[in-house]
């Protein structure tokens, strides 16, 4: 007999570590996993933001803890994994959401900015996945890794969009996801990625102010931007038993932008 559908999306007894989880897309995903029954550990750089986010989730009845750390630093990643294992016992779900961007023309792009974006957007995902996989998921032969890529990693951008490091790093996230899925499938670990389109957030505030919500929405076939609900279902699919036979996949949640991107 098949499993009832409500049990396929039940995360009761599961644990989740969410990087960049104090706001925006990370917090939205943490909320979804917590509402499905998972215990949550949030991490990001600023303790005050984490405390506020954890309180908001706890007010919804979600078992939430937090630890402040800089995910671009290997020693800090080790600290986060130590704390997660101590507080949660093991890590069933890892959401690699922490990220950064920096805008400048490619010909003038500062090396310091390039390294900052690359270190957080792809190097930290490798290091966090490696640590969690080695210390929790591989020994238990179970795990769900969800990487946050972007539609910017699915195709190049045109003139006037000056995010060379961001797009490059997200393209790396896409192939990292596929490659790790192939390598760790034998351990019972699925590795997938969400590729959001434009969602209003602190990171995208400058673009939103420059171009306007209506102009940005006009590029999507659905003629809308992402909102506070649009990643929740997709994240839950990848994290739950419902997604146990899905790995190495990149799911664009973008209002249809990637469907028409090659056609202008």
Structure description:
The protein has 264 residues and is of the alpha/beta class. The protein has a single domain, classed as 3-Layer(aba) Sandwich (Rossmann fold). 45% of the residues lie in helices and 14% in strands. It has a seven-stranded parallel β-sheet, with helices on both faces. The protein starts with a helix and ends with a helix.
Low-confidence stretches: none
CATH architecture annotation: 3-Layer(aba) Sandwich
CATH class wording: Alpha Beta
Main beta-sheet strand count, sense and barrel state: 7 strands, parallel
Overall number of structural domains: 1
Q: Report how far the terminal alpha carbons are from each other.
A: 47 Å
In CATH, the topology is named: Rossmann fold
> What's the Cα radius of gyration?
18 Å
Mean pLDDT across the residues is: 93
Number of helix segments? 10
Overall, the morphology is: globular
CATH superfamily: NAD(P)-binding Rossmann-like Domain
Order of helices and strands: HEHEHEHEHEHEHHHEH
Give a brief rundown of this model.
With 264 residues, the protein is of the alpha/beta class. It has one domain: 3-Layer(aba) Sandwich (Rossmann fold), CATH 3.40.50.
């Amino acid at each position: 007999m098949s499993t009832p559908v409500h049990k396929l999306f039940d995360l009761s007894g599961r644990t989740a570590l969410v990087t960049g989880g104090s706001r925006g897309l990370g917090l939205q995903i943490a909320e979804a996993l917590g509402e499905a029954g998972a215990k949550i550990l949030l991490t990001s750089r600023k303790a005050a933001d984490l405390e506020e986010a954890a309180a908001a989730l706890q007010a919804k009845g979600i078992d939430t803890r937090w630890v402040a750390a800089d995910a671009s630093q290997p020693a800090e990643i080790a600290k986060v994994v130590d704390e997660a294992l101590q507080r949660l016992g093991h890590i069933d779900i890892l959401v690699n959401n922490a990220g950064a961007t920096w805008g400048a023309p490619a010909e003038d792009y500062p090396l310091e900015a390039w390294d900052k974006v690359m270190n957080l957007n792809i190097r930290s995902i490798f290091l966090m996945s490696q640590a969690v996989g080695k210390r929790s998921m591989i020994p238990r032969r179970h795990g769900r890794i969800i990487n946050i890529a972007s539609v910017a990693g699915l195709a190049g951008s045109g003139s006037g969009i000056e995010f060379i490091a961001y797009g490059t790093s997200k393209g790396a996230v896409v192939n990292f996801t596929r490659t790790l899925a192939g390598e760790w499938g034998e351990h019972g670990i699925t590795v997938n990625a969400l590729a959001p389109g434009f969602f209003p957030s602190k990171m995208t505030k400058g673009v939103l102010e420059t171009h306007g919500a209506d102009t940005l929405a006009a590029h999507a076939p659905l003629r809308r931007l992402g909102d506070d609900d649009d990643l929740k279902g997709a994240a839950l699919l990848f994290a739950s038993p419902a997604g146990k036979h899905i790995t190495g996949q990149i799911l664009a949640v973008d209002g249809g932008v990637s469907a028409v991107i090659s056609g202008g």
